[in-house]
Amino acid sequence: MATGTGKRLRLHGTIAHDLGTLIASGHFKPGALLDNEVEASDRLKVSRTAYREAVRILSAKGLVEARPKVGTRVSPVHRWHLLDPDVLAWIFAGEPDVQLIKALFELRRIVEPPAAAIAAVRRTTAALKTMERALEVMAHYSLANEVGRTADQEFHATLLGSTGNPFLQSLTSGIAAAIARTTIFIHQHRPLRDPMPEHIRVYEAVRDQKPQRAQQAMARLVEHALRDATEARQGKRRRGAAAQPPG
Prior knowledge:
By secondary structure, this protein is mainly α. Helices cover about 70% and strands about 5% of the residues. The chain folds into two domains: about 1-80, Arc Repressor Mutant, subunit A; about 85-240, Four Helix Bundle (Hemerythrin (Met), subunit A) (Up-down Bundle). The longest helix is centred in the last third of the chain and has 33 residues, at about 210-245. The N and C termini lie far apart (about 55 Å).
């Protein structure tokens, strides 16, 4: 019985992933109507229950809105839960919209540099030790490795946590997911640049309680990451164009 339940969960999760990727890639535009439950389940050769559960997942993440007698319609992008780890994964699974990339890093510019400045004033010894350990793991494994990427997320999460501001802290999981997804995307489509010097400068400014220096160092880190993500998207697009058959 448990095995059957697990298969059903995997099935509707797979359907949600496939539909979510199509929506995030722009294949289904905002306002587009998806196939109704009967048509979609027949086309995908799955049960209506599995398809219905997949749509519920997408609805809970803001990608679609299902209304009786109207159908399931793709929602405007501003209604998507854009910092949800699954939504970010779907966005970066294909060729992410350049405006979405810029908007994501605009959010990081708004949040992280000022947060670094606050953290430089309020950080604790325990937080510094956590950041230092994260830097050591990043240096050892690099961001090409999942262990290194997890340490990178811990570094940024500790920085936000060090502000002591619960509203900033509530952004931790979303910012961490954004960092992880963009790093994976960059690694897949261009050589990874060594991020350690930038992270070390942020750490040293926070350690030395230099708010302005911490803010500037974090701003540079985010700007360089934006450049990397933009170049990675361009590289992915060039390779995609080269792979297309002539004519």
